[in-house]
Amino acid sequence: MKAITMPRLAMIAVASASLGLAACNSPQEEATDKAADAVEAQSDAAADAIETQADATTGAAEDALDAKSDAVEKAGEAKSDAMKDAADKAN
């Protein structure tokens, strides 16, 4: 078995510390992340409902509902991402 050299041990220690610091979020950031996840889940649910309506139609109406579904989903993702980014910058 190879002995662990000091440089390897140092790299392991630095990597472990970096991961530990990256995982530390403030309670406020955690709450914002949960709220952002909820926003995204709500928009996904709304997009799914619109998609169900689209499946019940044909032609231009179906295309319009599909486009609306995509727009709702993208808007929810964008809002969620913006909330998370703002929380990251605040900490």
In words, what does this structure look like?
This protein has helices at residues 6-23, 27-55, 59-90. It is mainly alpha-helical and 91 residues long. The chain has one domain (26-90). The mean pLDDT is 82.
Rg (CA only): 22 Å
* Count of separate DSSP helical elements: 3
Kindly report the average pLDDT value.
Answer: 82
Termini separation: 44 Å
**Sheet of most strands:** none
Structural class by helix and strand composition? mainly alpha
Provide the β-strand percentage band: under 5%
What general form does the structure show? elongated
Core attributes:
mainly alpha, 0% strand, 87% helix, 91 residues, 3 helices
List the helices and strands and how they pair.
Elements: H1 6-23, H2 27-55, H3 59-90
Summarize the model shown.
This protein is mainly α and 91 residues long.
